[in-house]
Amino acid sequence: MREPLATMAGYHLGWWDADRSLAVEGSAGKALRGALVFAAAAACTGGDVGDTAQIAAAVELMHNFTLLHDDVMDGDRTRRGRPTVWSVWGTSDAIVLGDALHAAAVQILADLRDQSIAVKAIMRLEATCVELCVGQNEDCSFEGRLGVTVDDYIRMAAGKTACLIGCCCALGALSAKADDATVAALGRFGHELGLAFQFVDDLIGIWGDPGVTGKPVGSDLARRKATLPVVAALNSGSEAAIELAALYADGADMTQSDVDRAAALVELAGGRRAAQRFADERIQAAVAALPDAVKSEDLMALSHLVCRREH
Amino acid sequence: MREPLATMAGYHLGWWDADRSLAVEGSAGKALRGALVFAAAAACTGGDVGDTAQIAAAVELMHNFTLLHDDVMDGDRTRRGRPTVWSVWGTSDAIVLGDALHAAAVQILADLRDQSIAVKAIMRLEATCVELCVGQNEDCSFEGRLGVTVDDYIRMAAGKTACLIGCCCALGALSAKADDATVAALGRFGHELGLAFQFVDDLIGIWGDPGVTGKPVGSDLARRKATLPVVAALNSGSEAAIELAALYADGADMTQSDVDRAAALVELAGGRRAAQRFADERIQAAVAALPDAVKSEDLMALSHLVCRREH
Question: Does the pLDDT of residue B149 top 80, yes or no?
């Protein structure tokens, strides 16, 4: 990729800082999606390591393109403890870099040696991209809107997060030349895992340790985001739900004590417990979706990692 | 595509208005790129009409995705005489719709019956997309910058416009199962034609009839855009160039009389004549790039249409 896009891409991926000096540790993402491609391929055995690595790179590029655009749309100034690309170089550069990473993801897949796998992988990844767009659009529409139900929220999370994680697991199986039934089973596993991942992310967004997450504490509440613990709390019909709804309906900026109060109300209304239960259920469903033949230790370990993040 | 993205996509493409009522005539684009795919395929003969139509649809979607994002980046409020998507629905929706159309373009190509053509077409279209991103990034960086040379400008125009038009002609030949040399020749034809197209667009941006172009008169000058006539004028070393440079360096909003004066200065400094000459040369080069066997009447007619737009 040509400059200045290459510098911005490496910055976003945590390889270096804005001036191309060495980035501090922890600036790179977890690469969970790439890891899932490898783990799914390994679980199916018979995989070609070369193809798997290309597919893992492609899903990471696709994911990072959506992060670049999401940060612009959501106005998020920091990610992983560093300023986002748009807040360093401006929104135009962040949009165009995202577009270029989207193209690069597809180029990598088109370059796979097996054309039949290439076409299937591209089909699945781009269908997933359309779902991500619909999910992100829905997520934006939730902001500041009351009356979002738990079902609305789960449908949005399926589009915004779970479909890509399902895609990663399915593509890992595809790269291992697994049969269609196994590819579909790994897709379902990833989809359930992805829902759990989003629900845990929502818990972290309220009760996470900023030192670990790189996000300011309570930032989701301060922005009145309709995350799962909040949606579950608002739909609980409790006294705390009424007070929380009033806090969310108020147009004024939240103070730190408002944020603390909101977190306490979500917990009082049972939102924290409900979100944790939903996450646990999705992990169980994920494990149940896996045929015994592909129930590998790596996939189990990654599933548990998703649920045990610091929060 | 799901709602609300489908309504926005159809609005952008000129199929209907924002409330899905019938759009006025002239709201749809020229579909020049799609037409070039068909003309190139027909010139090579032996083409499969089904595949050609899919490829034409894909390049139009790719082009329209970049227009949606360009309008956000450039802050353009109108296109083809109607409010742009971002100015109706907001920038987030316009970004996400562009991303979804990008994905849809690739999905259509991945769905081609001949997988070898599918992979080649995807490779070429996505390599083109990266070029478009680099070109758009360069174009943004030109805004408000003095010292842009004619060579800088032509390189940017090659990335921003010519590479996609070259891609359309090459993909048309590919869909007709033409040999590699013919595909490459049509790619070169389209590239030269695309440069001419951009240069004529720049002339229209200053001297075009707003009733025909749908753009406010002199809008490129009012925004101090470094288009080819302006860049050629600024590099002419004439008295008019000095006065024009002063107008461009001034931070104040241009009045209509400033815009009129700028247009007169560009013409005085020879910028209008130079841009017209560059366009004519590129058209000649385009025609020269075509092997006699594929020098079809349609391709000649489209070439002349490009140069004879109202300005």
Answer: yes
